[in-house]
Design brief:
Elements: H1 2-34, H2 46-59, H3 74-109, H4 114-128, H5 131-142, H6 167-200, H7 204-211, H8 216-228, H9 230-238, H10 240-253, H11 263-269, H12 272-300, H13 302-307
Helix pairs in contact: 1-2, 1-12, 3-4, 3-6, 3-10, 3-12, 4-6, 5-6, 5-10, 6-8, 6-9, 6-10, 9-12, 10-12
């Protein structure tokens, strides 16, 4: 069993490395093939240049120099901005999963009730509403110094506080971005959890548990939710590219100093070294998040490891 688990983890880690290096390499190759002027003075075969770039980037962490701003090393941009992005992504995933699983379990256990209908409507709304619209409305209504509703008292911070400066201020500055990032995921997870748990509740062993006198709340919490939650994590892994795309948008709206803050200027200025580095970071966030969901899914459902 331990050998099977180790093999499963090793295969997933290797796939993460392959995905990140592959996506970055294909991006570099496509740009340099379409823009030969970027390789002016370099007479080497393009694949040799690609191998040299991948070696410098992933073995020496040298992504070149960004031409926007103060000509900083791209690795410095990544090192300074990555902690904020990881914090934002982790919090958004936690909010989305917990809210979606809890809401989906309630909707399956109380089908047709008014709260269940309200939750399903809210899920559909947040699945369709663009995150930057929700983020902007949040700031315009409740933002500090901007809000039309909040004139005094607690408001949404409009500046980011690092964890090192103040852990409480850090959590306060990321609370609303976590919620906004997690809402679309919560809507997707709620619908999947409701469908999965509706099937699980019809299983014979759960009918027997209810017939023996167990309260519905106990049956749902101890038996139905653990049995129905695996598809939710599987779906979360599939939606990670969308979650990371939303992260980039939310980072811009709430002024979170993450890696992607200068992406717009980099695109406008043709700062390809910076864009290649951002491509690697985005691919890494998607791949690592998918890896985590795969590991959780394998822990919840050992059959996943057996089929791997």
């Amino acid at each position: 069993m331990a050998l099977s688990t180790g093999k499963f983890v090793l295969e997933r880690v290797i796939s993460v490395v392959v995905v990140v290096v592959g996506v970055t390499g294909l991006t570099w190759l496509a740009v340099n093939a379409l823009r030969p002027d970027l390789r002016a003075g370099d007479d080497r075969f393009i694949l040799i240049g690609l191998l040299d770039y991948l070696q410098s980037a992933f073995l020496h962490f040298d992504f070149g120099v960004s031409r926007t701003g103060s000509n900083r090393e791209v690795e410095d941009v990544i090192r300074q901005g990555l902690p904020a992005d990881i914090s934002l992504l982790a919090g958004g995933l936690a909010v989305g999963l917990l809210t979606g699983i809890t809401g989906g379990a309630y909707c399956a256990a109380r089908p047709g009730s008014f709260p269940a209908r309200a939750l399903e409507t809210a899920a559909a709304l947040f699945m369709c509403a663009p995150v930057y619209v929700v983020a902007l409305l949040s700031l315009l209504l409740f933002g500090a110094g901007l809000g039309m509703v909040v004139s005094s008292g607690p408001a949404i911070p409009t500046t980011y506080t690092s964890f090192r400066d103040s852990p409480l201020g850090w959590a306060g500055s990321l609370l609303v971005p976590w919620i906004v990032l997690g809402l679309p995921l919560a809507g997707v997870c709620l619908r999947m959890m409701r469908a999965s748990m509706t099937e699980v509740l019809e299983e014979d062993y759960l009918r027997t548990a209810r017939a023996k006198g167990l309260r519905m709340r106990t049956v749902v919490r101890r038996h139905a939710v653990p049995a129905a939650v695996a598809p939710v994590f599987s779906l979360t892994g599939v939606t990670m590219p969308i979650v990371v795309t939303n992260l980039v948008l939310i980072e811009q709206v709430f002024s979170v100093p993450g890696v992607f803050t200068g992406m717009r200027r980099g695109i406008a200025a043709g700062d390809f070294d910076l864009l290649f580095g951002l491509t690697a970071v985005a691919a890494g966030l998607v791949a690592v998040s998918s890896l985590v969901t795969d590991l959780v899914l394998a822990w919840l459902d050992p059959r996943v490891r057996a089929r791997a």
